[in-house]
Amino acid sequence: MQLILIRHGETSWNKEGRVQGTSDIELSDEGIKQARLLAISLKAQKIDAIHASPLKRAMQTAQIINQYHSLEIQNHQELIEMNQGDFEGLSFKELMNDKKDFLKQWISNPAAVKMPNGESLAELQTRAWQAMEKIIAADKNSLIVSHNFTIAAILCRLRDISLNEFRRTCVDTASKTVVSMEKDKVIIDPLNDRSHLFLSPRA
User: Fold this and answer.
1) Catalytic residue flag (residue 8)
2) Does 196 participate in catalysis according to the annotation?
3) Mind listing the pLDDT tens digit for each residue in 110-137?
4) Distance CA 93, CA 34 (A)
5) For the residues 15-27, what does the mean pLDDT come to?
6) What is the pTM of this model?
7) Catalytic-role residue among 8, 69, 76, 196
8) Contact 143, 6 (CB under 8 A)
9) Superfamily in which the 2-198 domain is placed by CATH
């Protein structure tokens, strides 16, 4: 069984360097272009099921990919991005200027930090894994469209590593990560692949 983890295409907030979290931002024109290139790279892939976060940027990406597969897209609220609470919509520059003490804690011990009026990585991982358990139990080659922190938390669980090491599993916009699962063996290859974005599109 293969799980193909997809991070949605770029949004205007990604480009502007804003904290996006659960804010429901649509794909930008560039994000739509990225999703189309992703779709072309996956059109010959054997995909039996498509799962997605219901946030617009993830659903748009899933719908564009699904043009070549014509499957029912299954929404999972558990796959939305981490709730960033008071930081939603702030620029990274604003965070660096105004939230230095918090950022020091986040850098040194991210597994123990909770976003003010938001979520922690541990809470995110717990809810995201509820969806993943159902997807894995179905034993189908599945494409899963989600978000950076959500995918990172899932990959930490699959690799059996601490959430303090989540940065090793972060992924870029419009990337794909392939997880092959055979019995108790988990192989992740490629991780954060974006090579499709640099090829000439051939529909």
Assistant:
1) yes
2) no
3) 998 999 999 999 999 999 999 999 999 9
4) 26
5) 96
6) 0.95
7) 8
8) yes
9) Phosphoglycerate mutase-like (3.40.50.1240)
Bridging pattern class, strands 176-182 and 185-188: antiparallel
Catalytic annotation, pick one of 51, 76, 147, 196: 147
Closest CA to 42 of 76, 59, 72, 67: 67
Ramachandran category for residue 34: left, alpha or beta (phi over 0 → left; psi -120 to 50 → alpha) = alpha
The residues, ordered by sequence, that sit 6+ positions from 163 with a Cβ below 8 Å of its Cβ are 110, 111, 121, 122, 125, 153, 156
Q: Are 143 and 50 in contact (CB under 8 A)?
A: yes
Split at pLDDT 50, 70, 90, the class of 179 is very high
Six-digit token string for 174 = 């419009």
Per-residue HEC secondary structure of the chain comes to CEEEEEECCCEHHHHHCECCCCCCCCECHHHHHHHHHHHHHHCCCCCCEEEECCCHHHHHHHHHHHCCCCCCEEECHHHCCCCCHHHCCCEHHHHHHHCHHHHHHHHHCHHHCECCCCCEHHHHHHHHHHHHHHHHHCCCCEEEEECHHHHHHHHHHHHCCCHHHHHHHCCCCCCEEEEEEECCEEEECCCCECHHHHCCCCC
Residues counted in the chain: 203
